[in-house]
Design a protein that fits this description.
Blueprint lengths: L9 E5 H16 L5 E7 L3 E10 L4 E3 L4 E3 L1 H11 L5 E8 L10 H6 L7 E5 L12 E6 L2 E4 L2 H7 E4 L5 E5 L4 E4 L4
The structure holds zinc ion.
Length: 181
């Protein structure tokens, strides 16, 4: 069976998604390792990104040249997300200082190729805090397309009042979880 994905025109992102992404990822960046985080929310023509799932520990590879999570980690995220009516909408990961903040060949091949999913690369080991300076890609028509600054401005809105929740997970369980606030 082929899943039907609602096409996404725009994203509304809870402001906490950006700040928590940077907080979580720069710790690894300072240790000289890549790290990443999953963004979740409600899929619609205007999608709402309202949650983060940070993989940490078993099933997570944080290395100088790559970041990878096992299918079991995705499984834990899905078990946390499904009862909350959240689905995967984006994956953000850092590149270390001196490495271009661009989707690498590995990123392209190993990315989650769901139509409309965002792949975001944060440069300078996560110390780049301005989301407009991150590299934004969206999976459309079977490939990743890099969004220009103008396109980001047009398709992305940051919301400071929207409910937000987060969790930290590994391959086996949810280690930490907040309620919507
Ligand atoms: Zn990468």
């Amino acid at each position: 069976m082929t899943a039907i994905y609602v096409p996404i025109d725009r994203w509304v992102v809870a402001a906490r998604v950006f700040s928590l992404t940077a907080e979580n990822l720069r710790r690894a960046g300072r240790d000289g390792k890549e790290s990443g985080i999953l963004w979740l929310g409600r899929r619609d023509k205007t999608a709402q990104i309202t949650a983060t799932a940070f993989p940490s520990g078993t099933g997570v590879e944080e290395c100088p040249g790559h970041w990878r999570i096992s299918p079991e980690v995705f499984g834990t995220v899905t078990r946390w997300a499904a009862p909350r009516d959240l689905c995967l909408l984006g994956v953000a990961h850092i590149h270390l200082r001196g490495v271009p903040a661009r989707l690498s060949r590995t990123d392209r091949n190993c990315g989650v190729q769901i139509p409309g999913i965002l792949e975001v690369i944060i440069g300078d080991g996560g110390d780049q805090l301005d989301y407009r300076k991150w590299s934004w890609y969206v999976c459309e028509n079977g490939d990743y397309h890099q969004m220009s600054k103008a396109e980001i401005g047009k398709r992305l809105t940051v919301d400071h009042s929207i409910d937000f929740e987060s969790c930290t997970v590994n391959a086996e369980s949810v280690l930490f979880s907040t309620e919507a606030q």
